[in-house]
Amino acid sequence: MIRRMFLLCLLPVLVRAQSLKDFEKKVTEFTLANGFHFILMERHDAPVVAFHSLVNVGTVDDPAGESSMAHMFEHMIGKGTTSLGTTNWPEEQKALAAVETAYDKLDEERWKVPPAAPARVQQLEGELNVAIVKANSFVDPNAYIRVINENGGVGFNAGTASDYTTYFYSLPSNRIELWFLMQSEWFRRPVFREFYKERDVVREERRMRVESDVQGKLQEVLLGTAFLAHPYRNMIGWSSEIEALRAKDADKFFKKYYAPVNITIAIVGDADPALVKNLAEKYYGTIPAGPPPPPVTAVEPVQEGEKRAVIESDSQPLLTVAYKRPNQTDKDDAVFDVISAILTGGRTGVLYKQLVMEKKVALEVDSGATTPAGKYPNLFQLYSVPAPDHGVEENEKAIYGVIDGLKAEKVDAATLQRVKTKLRASLIRQLDSNSGLASQLAFYRAEYGDWRMMFKGIDMIEKITAEDIQRVVKQYFVPSGRTVAYTIGSTK
Q1: Are the C-beta atoms of residues 84 and 259 closer than 8 Å to each other?
Q2: What is the dotted CATH code of the domain comprising 307-488?
Q3: Which residues contact 121 (CB under 8 A, 6 or more apart)?
Q4: Given pLDDT bands bounded at 50, 70 and 90, which one contains residue 309?
Q5: What CATH number belongs to 32-86+139-283?
Q6: Which of 371, 64, 379, 380 is nearest to 237 (CA)?
Q7: End-to-end alpha-carbon separation of the chain, Å?
Q8: What are the residue ranges of CATH 3.30.830.10 in the chain?
Q9: pLDDT of 9 above 90
Q10: Which pLDDT tens digit goes with each residue over 220-246?
Q11: In whole angstroms, what is the distance from residue 174 CA to residue 46 CA?
């Protein structure tokens, strides 16, 4: 999988550190009494520090009927805290409460049986809009981000994946306390100001990424078809649910999933361990502890036959084929990464050579070893864009021919070694920055329980054999575990 294959990027660090033991000498790791876990990697070659906070919650944890709730939080981080981002917090707090009260009245009328009179609903919508305008009048726009930028911060961003949410940026090392102050205050008590404005932004993201993009539509249909029970079936959230998200429910979500025990913080750069520990205790140690949030308990039933889905579209024909596979802790996890590289690793990829260069039935091919994420059993996905005068059926048949070839004959030693070398070379650059390393330290600790899995992953890749590849393809790339989704011309 692309995300976890960053483990190979550690090679430039390994060259400097020579061994895990030497690397560990530069790492300070500790857990506060309330559960926050910190990992510090010292790099004193430049006076900068990268901060990466990973919360072990993603779209897979969205409550029923509230898809995209986890996504909303990446939009809230820049809105600030009770002390930053407001012109008058006591009054703003009252105004925000009034917004929720007005929204409660509107929802009550909207869902009445029999339906409420349209005039009454319209009246309550007007009252809600007035309440929102008043609450927004207390907002100091972009104050949180402005303070970071004024102090030399760069790379301020956040992201929501299926399995986790991240918050990150870098600061000069003489501003390290500023990060501890600002990030800890947000983890202590985020303010959901301009929540409904940002909800509209998330709704627009869905419109752009799915409703107006045939590739997005195809991906959403693929996931919804492949997964019956597991929440991996939800990609970005459904429009009706996004439009109904509430700030009061975001507060419940925060209290459930943003417990200190569910958060890992990685710091890489010019930082002193003693100072980091002191600041962590000072700013994070007083945040109340909370129970670990519940895991996703839904288990996808065994697939007992091929599934197919079709989208009508006048756009360029598209095809995607996916196979069920185990989660990221499975012994064969790294094998799937290598198979992906063998199939579509640049112009030397088997799928590229056969479909694009030789048979010329496709304009583009691609693959993903882990879709949409790896914490739970997921998909190995293949993707093809048919060439003009060549259809989906022809591309599908050609893909199966390549897969059958991997089942019939072992990958030759030269190809396997080339793929391993190429993986290594292409990924080395991605972890040569403080921010890249901080991201991986937090990820491996949160997803695997130990950042040292980066080192173990390198060994796993190197030990993969041609027999492993053939065995995994035979075991998992089978019709009974396959889902196919494609587009056809519109009949309208």
Answers
A1: no
A2: 3.30.830.10
A3: 106, 109, 110
A4: very high
A5: 3.30.830.10
A6: 64
A7: 39
A8: 32-86+139-283, 307-488
A9: no
A10: 999 999 999 999 999 889 999 999 999
A11: 12
